[in-house]
């Protein structure tokens, strides 16, 4: 069953959101909320183990504390999710590329994190899987077609 999307542009011909896009939006909201919360916690207390992350995990990384990872979480994945969701709701021409890019960035971030930390935590699998799911959902033909600019859509 398709779900209507609030706030779509009036000139749009499609009024129902593909199921894959609805799932993408759910995943993007989950990523964005967790990134904002985690990012703020790391920015507020970058040296004091705010999320139960041992400071020893940073040994051998380019980071002296959790400030830069917190800034990345908040900025790229928190605010980035908000920007992608805005683009989807408003059906901006850049929305599809941004949707795919957010998922690719999430997978890349997790892979880099595992490489730097030289350890695997269950959250790496969860958030890496979420990033892969965002890419898979965003690249579905129904999502691509829905987010295609109005002038480029098939009749």
Give the gist of this structure.
The chain contains five helices and two strands.
What would your notes on this structure say?
This protein has 155 residues and is mainly alpha-helical. It is built from five helices and two strands; from the N terminus they run ββααααα. It has helices at 19-44, 67-90, 95-117, 122-138, 141-147; strands spanning 3-4, 16-17. The chain has a two-stranded antiparallel sheet. The longest helix is centred in the N-terminal third of the chain and has 26 residues, at 19-44.
Characteristics of this structure?
155 residues; mainly alpha; two-stranded antiparallel ribbon; 5 helices
Widest sheet, order of strands: 1-2
Distance between the termini: 22 Å
Q: Residue share in helices? A: 55-70%
- Biggest sheet architecture: 2 strands, antiparallel
| Computed structural class | mainly alpha
Shape: elongated
Strand content: under 5%
Determine the mean pLDDT: 88
Number of helices: 5
Q: Strand tally, please?
A: 2
Low-confidence stretches: 6-12
Describe how the helices and strands are arranged.
Elements: E1 3-4, E2 16-17, H1 19-44, H2 67-90, H3 95-117, H4 122-138, H5 141-147
Antiparallel strand pairs: 1-2
Helix pairs in contact: 1-2, 1-4, 2-3, 3-4
């Amino acid at each position: 069953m398709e779900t209507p999307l609030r706030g779509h542009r009036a000139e749009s011909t499609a009024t129902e959101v593909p199921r894959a896009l609805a799932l993408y939006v759910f995943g993007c909201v989950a990523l964005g909320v967790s990134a904002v919360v985690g990012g703020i916690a790391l920015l507020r207390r970058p040296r004091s183990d705010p999320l139960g992350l041992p400071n020893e995990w940073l040994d051998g990384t380019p980071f002296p504390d959790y400030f830069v990872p917190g800034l990345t979480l908040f900025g790229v994945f928190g605010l980035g999710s908000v920007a992608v969701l805005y683009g989807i709701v408003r059906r901006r021409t850049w929305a599809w590329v941004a949707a795919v890019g957010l998922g690719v960035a999430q997978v890349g971030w997790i892979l880099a994190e595992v490489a730097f930390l030289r350890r695997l935590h269950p959250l790496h699998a969860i958030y890496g899987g979420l990033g892969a799911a965002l890419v898979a959902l965003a690249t579905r033909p129904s999502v691509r077609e829905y987010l295609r600019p109005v002038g480029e859509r098939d009749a």
